[in-house]
Structure formats: structure tokens, C-alpha cells
Design a protein that fits this description.
Blueprint lengths: L4 E7 L8 H13 L4 E7 L15 H10 L2 E7 L7 H9 L8 E7 L6 H13 L3 E2 L4 E3 L15 H27 L5
Parallel strand pairs: 1-2, 1-3, 3-4, 4-5, 4-6
Length: 186
């Protein structure tokens, strides 16, 4: 595809023994197979951002990467009915760089599949002027949904992923064109 969208996938969990790489790798395989996107990964385990939001080495490069992206997907766990603190720090570290850009969510955890974390995130991303993609992917009891090589037979998640990528591509193109024609006034 001519002029594909730059999609950054943010892997939120930084806990020891995290399940995030399994879910993220599954999603990345689907996203990289979609010619509408070029895909990068921001793994917050490997992206040290200061929790006090101060300027530190690497923060400028992180903001530049966020600014250069056209769309985002956060792969997030749910811990204690919320999303990881590392993701809140990542969202708060940048400001204008997020504006007028779409974000989708792939969540996992417990019986809710991370949906409570996603509902909280929708409020946060609205405040930083992002567009939350309606379709999301959720894995309840995620460790039971993936086999030993990281594949899933969860038809609902596979279908939701396809719908989310279509919506993300539409919003990504639409907002990229709008920002180019008339910079966002936020």
C-alpha cells in the first residue's frame, strides 16, 4: 500500500513473569500482515520513563517517536481492576504528540479480559485528545486462550482484531489527512 500508516504498539506490562509478550506477539503478527500499516513496538519494559515525568535521557526520543506515529494500539493487562502504572506514565510523558491520533486496545486478564482497564483508558485518552477505537480485543483468562507457540483459536478475539484494524486504518488515514490539511487546534 502506498503511504502506509505508522502504527506503534505499546506493550504496557513491566512485571516480572509477565504474559504480555504472548499477547503482543499474537497481535503484532496480525498487524504486520496488514499492508495498511508499518508497525513498531514500544515495550515499556525496555523504555525507561521517569515516573516523576521529569526530563531524562531517552524522553525526547520517546516523544519524537510518538509524534511520528499515525496510530497506536496498547496491549494491556488488567491489575486490580485497572491498567499498569507504566502505561499511565507513558501516556503522561508526552502531551501534544498524542493529539488527534487513534488508539486501539488489546487487553487480557482474569474473567473480565482486561475490559475494566480499557474502560479507564478510554477516559484518559479522551483527555489527551486521542480517538479511542470502538472495537477492542479482550482475552479473559488469557493463559488458557493461547497454545504453546502463542496462537489462539479464540474466534471472537480474531474477529475483533480484524475489525479493530479496519477501524484503526480508517481513523488513522482520516486523522492524518485532517492534521495535514488543518493542524489540530488542541
Amino acid at each position: 500500500m502506498e503511504n502506509p500508516l505508522r502504527l506503534e504498539v505499546i506493550v504496557a506490562s513491566t512485571r516480572p513473569g509477565r504474559f504480555a509478550p504472548v499477547v503482543a506477539d499474537w497481535f503484532l503478527k496480525a498487524a504486520r500482515a496488514d499492508e495498511r500499516f508499518t508497525v513498531g513496538v514500544i515495550d515499556l519494559l525496555d523504555t525507561p520513563l521517569p515516573v516523576d515525568l521529569s526530563e531524562a535521557p531517552g524522553v525526547g526520543e520517546y516523544r519524537e517517536r510518538i509524534a511520528a506515529a499515525d496510530a497506536f494500539v496498547a496491549v494491556t493487562s488488567e491489575y486490580n481492576h485497572g491498567y499498569p502504572a507504566s502505561l499511565k506514565t507513558a501516556l503522561d510523558t508526552a502531551k501534544r504528540e498524542w493529539r488527534a491520533k487513534p488508539i486501539g486496545f488489546v487487553s487480557y486478564g482474569g474473567l473480565s479480559g482486561g475490559l475494566r482497564a480499557v474502560e479507564q483508558l478510554r477516559q484518559v485518552v479522551a483527555e489527551i485528545h486521542m480517538v479511542s477505537i470502538r472495537e477492542s480485543v479482550g482475552f479473559a483468562e488469557a493463559k488458557r486462550k493461547f497454545d504453546d507457540v502463542g496462537e489462539t483459536r479464540d474466534g471472537a478475539a480474531i474477529d475483533a482484531c480484524e475489525r479493530m484494524l479496519r477501524q484503526l486504518a480508517w481513523w488513522g488515514r482520516t486523522l492524518r489527512d485532517a492534521r495535514a490539511a488543518d493542524p489540530y487546534p488542541g
